[in-house]
Write a structure and sequence with these properties.
Elements: H1 6-27, H2 34-47, E1 51-55, H3 58-68, E2 75-80, H4 85-93, E3 97-101, H5 112-125, E4 129-136, H6 145-155, E5 158-162, E6 170-171, E7 174-175, E8 182-186, E9 200-204, H7 207-216, H8 239-270, E10 274-275, E11 283-284, E12 290-294, H9 299-308, H10 338-346, E13 348-350, H11 358-368
Parallel strand pairs: 2-3, 2-4, 4-5, 5-8
Antiparallel strand pairs: 1-9, 6-7, 6-11, 8-9, 10-12, 12-13
The chain binds pyridoxal-5'-phosphate.
C-alpha cells in the first residue's frame, strides 16, 4: 500500500498523458508554450478567478506574491506556526519578519482571535509594520476567510491564501485559490493536483498584481524580455508539466469525489477512537491529508502497529515553525503556541489518495482497531 499512489493514477490516465507529452515534444515550445496558457485559462475557470499565472513551484508562488505586494524589510507577515516550512521561509527570504500564530484545535488552521492579538502586539511594540497575512488551507481544509478578511480589513493588511494543500477545497461553493488578495498553489506530485516534477500557480482577481507577477516570473521583464524593470526570478511553469496537468485537471473533479469517499469511510470507522478531521458546515476539504489524533494518546503505538501491517503513515507536522532551528533568532519559546504544540505531539496521517480501494481501506481500519 502506498501513502499516495501516483502510479495507479498514471496507469488510469496513461494514454492521455503520454499523448499530451508527445505533443509538446513535437511542437518544441518548451518554455511558456501553448499548454501553459491553456492550463492557466482552465485553472482560472475552475478556481473562479480572473488571472492564473503558472510558476516553477509553490514556494516561488508565495515569494512572488509577497514581492508583488511590495512586502519587504521592516514589514511583519503573520502566519500559522503549524504548516510546511515554505510558508514561513519565504517571509524571511524576502527580508520581512515572520510572526507566528497558534491554530484552532478543530480545524488545524490559523486561529483568527489569536491572529488579531498578535497583530495588536506588533502594533503596540512598534518595531515592525504589519503588512500581510499568509493563511494556509491545511490538509485541504480552507481557513476561516470570513473572520480573517474582517481582521485584515480592520488593520489594512493584505491576505495571501496558501492553497498548496487546499486546491479543490471550497467554502459555500467558492473554491480554494479564490480567497484573499492573492492565492497560491503547488503542483508538487503529492499535492491534490500534482504534476510529474515541480510546479505552482498564483491566482488573483487584481489586474495590477497579475501584471506584476507575470513580469516577476521572468526576471522582472518590461514590455520586452531584455528590458528589465524590476528585480524578479526565473520561475516559470514548464510546458511539459502544464501538459500533464491539463489531463490531471480534467480528471480532478472525479478524483475529489473519490477522496471524499475515502474520507467518509475512514470517518465512519474511526470516529469513536480518534479525533477525525472536522469540516465546518458549508466547507469542503480536498483531503490533501487525512490526519487523526488518538482520543487516548499512544500515537507511537498506533503508528508502529500500522508499520507492522506494512501501512505507511506520516506525521504532518511534528515540528512547528517557532521550533525550527532556522528561526531560532526569532526567540520563540516552545510553550508559546500551546495548541500547535499539542497537535505536533499527537497527530498522524493515514494513506489518502483517490485510488485507495475498499480492500486497502479495510486493512487500515482493521489494523487501527487492534
Ligand atoms: C507543499 C507546500 C508548499 C510549497 O510548495 P512547493 O511546490 O513544494 O514549493 C507551500 N505551502 C504548503 C502549505 C505546502 O504544503
Amino acid at each position: 500500500m502506498q501513502f499516495i499512489d501516483l502510479q495507479k493514477q498514471y496507469q488510469h490516465l496513461k494514454s492521455r498523458i503520454d499523448q499530451r507529452i508527445q505533443t509538446v515534444l513535437d511542437h518544441g515550445k518548451y518554455i511558456l508554450g501553448p499548454e501553459v496558457k491553456e492550463l492557466e485559462e482552465k485553472l482560472s475557470e475552475y478556481v473562479g478567478v480572473k488571472h492564473t499565472i503558472g510558476v516553477a513551484n509553490g514556494t516561488d508562488a508565495l515569494q512572488l506574491s509577497l514581492m508583488a505586494l511590495d512586502v519587504g524589510p521592516g514589514d511583519a507577515v503573520f502566519t500559522t506556526t503549524f504548516t510546511f516550512f515554505a510558508t514561513a521561509e519565504v517571509i524571511s527570504l524576502i527580508g520581512a519578519h515572520p510572526i507566528f500564530v497558534d491554530i484552532e484545535e478543530k480545524t488545524y488552521n490559523i486561529d483568527p482571535n489569536k491572529l488579531e492579538k498578535e497583530i495588536q502586539t506588533v502594533i503596540s511594540e512598534g518595531k515592525f509594520t504589519p503588512k500581510a497575512i499568509i493563511a494556509v488551507d491545511l490538509f485541504g481544509l480552507p481557513a476561516d476567510y470570513d473572520a480573517i478578511s474582517t481582521i485584515a480589513g480592520k488593520y489594512r493588511l493584505k491576505i495571501i491564501e496558501d492553497a498548496a494543500q487546499g486546491f479543490g477545497g471550497s467554502i459555500n461553493g467558492k473554491m480554494a485559490g479564490s480567497f484573499g488578495d492573492i492565492a497560491t498553489t503547488s503542483f508538487f506530485p503529492a499535492k491534490p493536483l500534482g504534476c510529474y516534477g515541480d510546479g505552482g500557480a498564483v491566482f488573483t482577481n487584481d489586474d495590477n498584481l497579475a501584471a506584476k507577477i507575470i513580469s516577476l516570473r521572468v526576471h522582472g521583464k518590461g514590455t520586452d524580455k531584455y528590458d528589465n524593470v524590476r528585480i524578479g526570478l526565473n520561475s516559470r511553469l514548464d510546458t511539459i508539466q502544464a501538459a500533464i496537468l491539463l489531463e490531471k485537471l480534467a480528471e480532478f473533479p472525479r478524483e475529489l469525489e473519490l477522496r471524499q469517499a475515502v474520507a467518509d469511510s475512514y470517518r465512519a470507522a474511526l470516529h469513536n477512537q480518534f479525533h477525525v478531521p472536522y469540516v465546518p458546515e458549508g466547507y469542503a476539504s480536498s483531503w490533501a491529508q487525512y490526519t487523526i489524533r488518538p482520543l487516548e494518546g499512544f500515537r507511537a503505538e498506533y503508528m508502529s502497529i500500522l508499520k507492522e501491517a506494512r501501512i505507511p503513515t506520516a506525521i504532518y507536522y511534528g515540528k512547528n515553525m517557532h521550533e525550527q532551528t532556522a528561526f531560532s533568532s526569532l526567540n520563540y519559546k516552545k510553550c508559546d503556541f500551546p495548541v500547535a504544540d499539542d497537535m505536533a505531539r499527537s497527530v498522524f496521517s493515514l494513506p489518502m489518495h483517490p485510488y485507495l480501494d475498499e480492500e486497502e481501506i479495510k486493512i487500515v481500519i482493521n489494523a487501527l482497531s487492534k
